[in-house]
Amino acid sequence: MTDVTDTNLHFHQELESLEHDVLSMVDRAEQMVEMAVEAVCIGDVALAAQVIKLDDDIDRIHLDVHGHWTKLMARFQPLGSDLRKMTVLLQLNQTFERMGDQCVNIAKVTRLNEGLPRVERMVEQIREMGDLVRPMIRTASEAYVRHDLEEARLLPDMDSPVDRLNANMYKEIVAVGSNPQMLEWASKILMVARALERIGDQAVDFAEQTAYLITGARTEFIKPGLNRSADDSPI
Amino acid sequence: MNHEQGDGLTTDIDTTSLESATETALAEEAIRVAKAAETVPRADQPLIFDVGKLTVYYGTFRAVKDVDMDIRQNQITALIGPSGCGKSTVLRCFNRMNDLIETARVEGKVEYHGVDLYGERVDPVEVRRRIGMVFQKPNPFPKSIYENIVYGPKIAGWKGNYDDLVEETLTKAALWDEVKDKLKESGMALSGGQQQRLCIARAIATSPDVVLMDEPCSSLDPIATLKIEELMLELKKDYTIVIVTHNMQQAARISDQTAFFSVRVDEQGQRTGYLVEYSQTDEIFTSPGQKLTEDYITGRFG
After folding, report:
1. Which ranges of B68-208 would DSSP assign to H, the alpha helix?
2. Confidence (pTM)
3. Mean pLDDT of A35-63
4. Pairwise CB contact (< 8 Å): A80 & B302
């Protein structure tokens, strides 16, 4: 068979449009991570407010995608790779919306920590986590677009240092000592680390969805050493 | 009425040759299963039909070639594919309906409970009693509802309580409550969906163990279609069902296994149907193994 005619062209165009909308969320989320980490690290409340505003866009797209998705399922009842893509897009719609929420959580700490004394070593670790998490989102996104299974499989290894830095934050709290204001600041920064760790997990989930889309088999990527389940964190 | 199976199909059977044939068939089956373990659907269910290298000609026209497939007990097996892919031809081989077409010729193996369905001593009438068929358009006899049900058993010489048979059969076909007060009225007076359920009732009245359905819902509205689909899911507890359908969603909704057929065109321009993929329905509609299947179920077909 040489010439393949798409007898389902209308659906495939709609599916492409849905996919475009979902991927536009991850582009925004990546940008929001950068802005939120910057805002909290330098204490820029105005920048933090921009992050919160950007999340409104993600929330709007999230609702639009959900509505569009439901209509497509009702009208076309897709099968095969189309069905897999639909299930993946529904999952990613949720994942990216949560990424946005985590960025908002980070941004909100900026105002809460305003005027409190800082621990520079912890700020540097937050920056480092941000610098690790953003390439994870980018890599997962590129793996999806290119249908590159090998690239998707890179994510668990990329996530390991993020988990280590998050775990290390608890030790930093102990090192802060007994200054109540500094402790208050540090406890909020702990929330920031936790939010970045969750975003890292969400990027791994993104890659797992990509693997499912390509292979048709559901697999959970195993990370060396650490369990990335939500239950293993003290927060 | 009790089901009779196996050697009861033949009129005068040589038991020795049957045993030997069965052993050979079992050995062949074992090899085949070992070779293609991953592609044999629900191999744990008893084997009803064992089809190997099935090729059907109408005159010089080769309609379908080299079909290998198992049909397993109490399963719904759906045959799907584009027009001309041979799916209805294959279905008709399961109860020798192709015998009624003078130019039809069947090659290869079609074994039913280990017996060659096309063996010389096999009685085609008995075959069709055990392997009933429901067609695309409801075709009740122009007789009363009651007569539609008892017609087959009467011809088969069944001695029993016909009133009970009618009630039991129509109940199984989910039609009893709708027609119990008008059993003497013509079957032709029923709605399309009811007529089709009457035809299903007629097919199961002779206590078959297989019911073949050739696009049974294609002339019905969506509600009547859903009723037939619900009925099929009930009937599979007692029968083995093989259905040809053009409606992929229908195959996805009701079947346990799905066989996807396609058409190949040779250098002379002759079109021949063949089996592309046979797998669990859940797999075939979410992660088919063949690109051709994937293209077909996602609407990319040329």
Report:
1. 87-93, 124-130, 145-155, 162-172, 176-179, 192-204
2. 0.80
3. 97
4. no
